[in-house]
Write a structure and sequence with these properties.
- It is a single chain.
- With about 375 residues, the protein is of the alpha/beta class.
- It has two domains: about 180 residues, Medium-chain alcohol dehydrogenases, catalytic domain (Quinone Oxidoreductase, Chain A, domain 1, Alpha-Beta Complex), CATH 3.90.180; about 130 residues, 3-Layer(aba) Sandwich (Rossmann fold), CATH 3.40.50.720.
- The protein contains 14 helices and 17 strands.
- Strand 9, helix 6 and strand 10 form a beta-alpha-beta unit.
- Helix 5 packs across helix 6.
């Protein structure tokens, strides 16, 4: 849980910059909220349930009423339901780690938030798969309300992960090369767009699929320099492609694991760094001994939740959010393709989210 704004000038500054005035209201009586929750971990298609509850009234002095507008289904959500995610909330718990809501009511002592403001959760396991939630003001972060709703709903996980991995591990210069697997994932798509904006080259690896050419065209339209398949990476033609780049990759992003991660290590240059942020194959990362000794390759891990905990009220976090929102406004950072579902359609949404070769991200749309 983030600390109160009274003790942290960075969060107060961020809210002051975005604030357009303060209005105090109380939640109306008889307000009900649909929510998706679990009582035990297991197969998401079996253990996820829905229920309607009544919202308590009135609000406490520092509480806000949040009306959720949109919330995606991320791999971390599925893992949390399964019980395999590193962080697990006490059960029963409403699910959903990411999303955007708007303030529908504020307590009498709330400062810096008013009705109509858009907010995102300040921490994970917030429970975004619901219509309404009463929260403390320090448990939310105000964001601009003049960006696309879908971009706001998918702001706090994938774009932030891509941003931090590109910024924090290697001092990249214009023209430097980044290689990644899972390039059509939410993180991968953001890496491509941010790298284009910052003038880094990207080599993007995706799984073999019948519609590869269509996917390649889409990723190239976002700014990808090269898009290849896992099968191509193991061919001699891949070595020629890497030679044509002029310089070897300094940085690699691994969201898959297994053999795919090993191939990334193989193509890294001397002293290169591979950052692992996911393991969709559920296979371990295997590193050739020679790459570690003679090429001095470094292996690191990135976890967005941990980064947020360490920088909960640092100016660094709010500068990042401001940068990302600015790029969104300029049309330089777009979310991945999405399919939309009402909360009541959760069974179909979860089924789609847990199947392979998804055409896009599944998103709950509350309004």
């Amino acid at each position: 849980m983030a600390a109160s704004i009274g003790k942290h000038p960075c969060r107060l500054l961020w809210r002051t910059i975005l604030s357009n005035g303060i209005r105090k209201t109380l939640v109306q009586r008889g307000l009900s909220s649909c929510q998706l929750f679990i009582e035990e971990c297991g197969d998401p298609n079996e253990v996820l349930k829905n229920a309607s509850i009544e919202i308590a009234s009135p609000l406490a002095s520092r509480e806000v009423l949040v009306k959720m507008m949109m919330s995606p289904i991320n791999p971390s959500d599925i893992n949390m339901i399964e019980g395999t995610y590193f962080v697990q909330p006490p059960l029963p718990a409403v699910m959903g780690n990411e999303g955007v809501g708007k303030i529908a009511g504020v307590g009498k002592d709330v400062r810096g938030l008013s009705e109509g403001d858009w907010i995102i959760p300040a921490d994970t396991a917030w429970g975004t798969w619901r219509n309404y939630k009463v929260a403390l003001e320090e448990d939310v972060i105000k964001i601009p309300n003049d960006i696309p709703l879908l971009s706001a709903a998918t702001l706090s996980v994938n774009p932030c992960t891509a941003y931090r991995m590109l910024k924090d591990y290697v001092d990249l210069k214009s023209g430097d090369v980044v290689i990644q697997n899972g390039a059509n994932s939410g993180v991968g798509i953001n890496v491509i767009q941010l790298a284009k904006e910052w003038n880094f080259k990207t080599v993007n690896i995706v799984r073999d699929r019948p519609d590869f050419e269509r996917l390649k065209k889409y990723l190239m339209s976002l700014g990808a320099d090269y898009v290849v398949t896992e099968e191509f990476v193991r061919k001699p033609e891949m070595k020629k492609l890497m030679k044509d780049l002029g310089s070897k990759p300094k940085l690699a992003f691994n969201g898959v694991g297994g053999n795919s991660a090993t191939e990334l290590i193989r193509y890294l240059g001397q002293g290169g760094v591979m950052v692992t942020y996911g393991g969709m194959s559920r296979r371990p990362v295997m590193a050739p001994t020679g790459a570690l000794i003679f090429k001095e390759i470094k292996l690191c891990g990135y976890w967005n939740t941990q980064w947020n905990h360490r920088h909960a009220d640092d100016l660094l976090r709010f500068e990042m959010l401001a940068d990302l929102c600015s790029l969104i406004k300029k049309g330089k950072l777009s979310p991945p393709p999405c399919e939309f579902y009402a909360l009541e359609e959760y069974k179909g949404a979860i089924r789609q989210a847990t199947e392979g070769f998804k055409g896009g991200k599944m998103v709950f749309q509350m309004e």
